[in-house]
Amino acid sequence: xxxxxxxxxxxxxxxxxxxxxxxxxxxxxxxxxxxxxxxxxxxxxxxxxxxxxxxxxxxxxxxxxxxxxxxxxxx
Length: 75
Ligand SMILES: [Zn+2]
What we know:
Structural class: mainly alpha
Bound molecules: zinc ion
Shape: elongated
Helix content: 25-40%
Number of domains: 1
Number of helices: 2
């Protein structure tokens, strides 16, 4: 609630998202597997071979989940 108030004060929008699988889902092909995370910091898709930093993948997936929720919200 404090984060939401601060964000709104700064003219930002806050959307809560379900964090499940955000660190395991490939942003390139959508393949979701714990094997996509060989180490804490590496993301390496076992399906399409996409490689990235695990934090980048997590942030991308959280952003996408938020945008999907915002689009689904009744106007
Ligand atoms: Zn992939």
